[in-house]
Amino acid sequence: MKLIDLHADTLTALYYDPAINGVAQEFTGQSTFHRLDKNTLHIDLEKLRQADSLAQFFVLWLNYKKCEEHGITAWQLFTKQYNELINQLNKHPEQISLVTNLAEIEENQKQNKLSAFACVEEGAFITEISQLRNVKKMGISYITLVWNYETHIGVPSAIDQTRGLKQFGFDMVEEMQKTGIMADVSHLSDQGVADVLSISKKPIIASHSNARVLCSHTRNLPDNLIKEIATQGGIIGVNCVPHFLKDNNIDIKYDYLIQHLQHIYQLAGIDCLAIGNDFDGFKIKPNSTNEINTIVDLPILADKLIQSGFNQTQVEQIFYKNSLRVIKEILG
Predict the structure, then answer these.
(1) CB proximity list for 20: less than 8 A, separation 6 or greater
(2) Count of the separate structural domains present in the chain
(3) Which end of the chain is less crowded, N or C, counting CB atoms within 10 A of the terminal residue's CB?
């Protein structure tokens, strides 16, 4: 079963020493770069092969507030991380390359190569709308509008669900859709998601979000927004972060993930479902008994989805075809 994973923080985990995971390493020059081809993280090239990956979305995570503390702009940090992603990909040109549209995925597939999308988690590195054209030229495919800080773009779910996009955020979303950059609403407040939907003329994505009715974490989506995202042709990448799967949970179980997929399917249909694991963006808790430990375990999910009542065509939609549809519609 081919797989497109909409969200992984692997580049960040390569950038920081996973044993320390200290954000200050970003700014002190003491970062240790680890290998993309083989490592002990959730994702590497070898694991992607084993998972039958078609395309992996690699996220450049920008800690906006830490930028301010260390006297560096978010744009400078974005550039630094972007260059490192390109450097990592260029070390293995026969195995993987950056893609920006559907045709490039298909060409890589013909050459038996993995495809990598570049994305940014934290839109605050954009301070002038004109920067979006440069970002598009660099090959950035989506921007997660906010992370966990309130910015000039809008308010995250972690702070206040009732306040949404600010005027710059409205302008930014409109320009992103004109330019051909996907708007990612994961982390955005409920009102912010509604604001994006109110002006969107193209599908939007929630790259790594689950159903709030099954797990009360503020980062999960309420039913009304799930339905609206689906109605407008968008996709929701269900993730396997333990505390987004079930309240007071430390385990990653296939059944927990399937329950979210089933709920969203019953509520909004099959066309909005996708995978966005958030791999390498969370740590495994001690004493947890996980069934999903790396991306290599995802093919088992496909089998279990069929056992739970989904048919082969539906599982293909969840695993990669719905994502391909949105990629084609927005990126070309």
Answers:
(1) none
(2) 1
(3) C
